[in-house]
UniProtKB/TrEMBL annotation:
GO terms, molecular function: hydrolase activity, hydrolyzing O-glycosyl compounds
Source species, domain of life: Bacteria
Pfam families: Glyco_hydro_2_C
One BP term from GO: carbohydrate metabolic process
InterPro entries registered for this protein in UniProt: GH, Glyco_hydro_2_cat
All copies of domain Glycoside hydrolase family 2 catalytic, residue ranges: 83-203
This protein's name: Glycoside hydrolase family 2 catalytic domain-containing protein
Length: 462
């Protein structure tokens, strides 16, 4: 225990030295920086804006988000559809990324009784930087964002502004072009709209980036954190930087492990869990790591993703099917938001096998090979209750993180037979990576999904 305390003290000491060194190098008064570091607060939170529609209030025990005069704990998700279902499930907030048809989207959210965290899209910081060092581009960006904020600032659904999503802000000592201009953007939004807080979303619990933003960005009201697999270690890692950052925060995205965190095949295709396993993970993570948060700084959380979304696959994060069928994750989040104990009676999948093998075995097939599949449902569920559909799609091989993804189309005429728990198909002729998808639907509102990646080798290199 003594060694652990020494290690923690040493790490905190190194963080402090690092910040002092940065300020010395830039000829900033160390005494002033020390006050900022040990206060560890976003400046705007120290001034209570009683007149604002929404604001972050400093209290004796921490922080709280106030909306229309009442304390507001965020319980919601992200997406741009199924608003009525979200409200019915007990959610109160939706994060909107897509700014197309935004007036209609905001109106629909307001009609459903939801608050909106509205993203303001701005370019990510990429080395070499061609945006934040370019005065003409920045001037256009200032004008565009001012017009955007003016247009939507008085909408009654608006909760707070999200200025950029996972911008990849540079670590200390940082790029002055980026931080100077980002501070101007924050200031612009706040001067244009005095009624709503301003935040930015950080990808993962990157302590160095969080400390850099906290040190370099002057006027954010709260920090938004997109966190997935790292949620399990958030509490312990947060304590290590407490002397330098102890401001308010929101989990602006949380969920199951992302493709970048998942186990992979030999050809680097991520292995996706069944929708059943993902629903269990949502429930466990919420109960263990979110519901128990009581640090005086936590202002709420948003699941990811309330709708249908292609991100490495079209089922990885999707709470709904293309036709509106719900996954078990919707059921579990409703139970959690409403604090109810319920048993899910819809379809549940244990796993799928190809020629008796699971996804972890990196299945490699020859082209034009006959393959047999097997679906195993959970808890001895009878397949006669459900409808099963099988399909094969190419792997999204040209995937780029943060890039827009096109959903590969299914390949027709491969299946020889397709039953409720078994099927057979002929593997594609073209060499490359693929996935077998299976969908199990009940006759009401739910569906379950699973997929298995496999690779086809063509001896003739076709």
């Amino acid at each position: 225990m003594h060694k652990i305390r020494l290690a923690i003290f040493y790490q905190k000491f190194i963080y402090i030295l690092r910040f002092f060194y940065e300020n010395y190098k830039n000829k900033i008064a160390i005494s002033t920086t020390a006050v900022i570091l040990f206060l560890g607060l976003f400046q705007s939170c120290s001034q209570e804006k009683i007149e604002a529609t929404v604001f972050v209030r400093k209290t004796s025990s921490g922080y709280e988000l106030v909306r229309n005069g009442k304390i507001f704990l965020i319980k919601g998700t992200s997406g741009n559809s199924n608003f009525k279902e979200l409200k019915k499930a007990g959610g109160n907030t939706i994060r909107i990324y897509d700014t197309t048809n935004l007036v209609q989207t905001l109106d629909e959210a307001d009609k459903a009784g939801l608050a909106v965290i509205l993203d303001i899209p701005i370019p990510r910081y990429i080395v070499p930087d061609s945006v934040y060092a370019n005065n003409s581009q920045m001037n256009r960006l200032f004008e565009d964002i001012r017009a955007f904020v003016i247009k939507y600032k008085n909408h009654p659904a608006l909760l707070y502004w999200m200025l950029g999503n996972e911008l990849k802000a540079p670590d200390l000592p940082g790029d002055d072009n980026f931080y100077d201009n980002f501070n101007k953007l924050v200031r612009l939004v706040k001067e244009t709209d005095h009624n709503h807080p301003v935040s930015t979303a950080v990808g993962g619990f990157d302590r160095s980036r969080i400390l850099s933003i906290n040190h370099k960005v002057n006027n954010l009201d709260l920090l938004s954190i997109n966190i997935f697999g790292e949620l399990s270690t958030f509490g312990s890692r947060k304590k290590l930087i407490y002397p330098l950052w102890h401001g308010p925060y929101v989990f602006s995205e949380f969920g199951v492990n992302g493709p970048w965190e998942a186990e992979q095949t030999l050809w680097n295709s991520p292995i996706e869990q069944t929708s059943t396993k993902k629903a269990e993970q949502y429930k466990n993570r919420y109960e263990k790591y979110i519901k128990t948060l009581d640090d005086g700084r936590f202002l709420g959380s948003l699941t990811f993703y309330w709708g249908h979304k292609q991100e490495r696959t079209h089922t990885w994060f999707s709470f709904f099917s293309e036709t509106g069928k719900r996954t078990q994750a919707v059921f579990e989040m409703e139970s959690l938001w409403k604090n109810q104990e319920r048993t899910f009676l819809g379809p549940r999948i244990n796993y799928v096998l190809l020629n008796g093998k699971g996804a972890q075995e990196s299945i490699i097939l020859n082209s034009n090979e006959k393959v047999n599949t097997q679906l195993l449902l959970a808890d001895n569920q009878s397949s006669s209750q459900f409808k099963t559909r099988w399909e094969i799609r190419p792997e999204n091989w040209n995937y780029l993180h943060y890039g827009e993804e096109a959903k590969p189309a299914p390949i027709n005429n491969l299946f020889l037979s397709s039953g409720s728990t078994k099927s057979s198909f002929i593997s594609p002729m073209k060499e490359g990576p693929y996935r077998l998808f299976v969908y199990v639907e009940d006759n009401k509102e739910f569906h379950a999904t699973a997929n298995v990646p496999f690779y086809v080798l063509n001896p003739n290199n076709e």
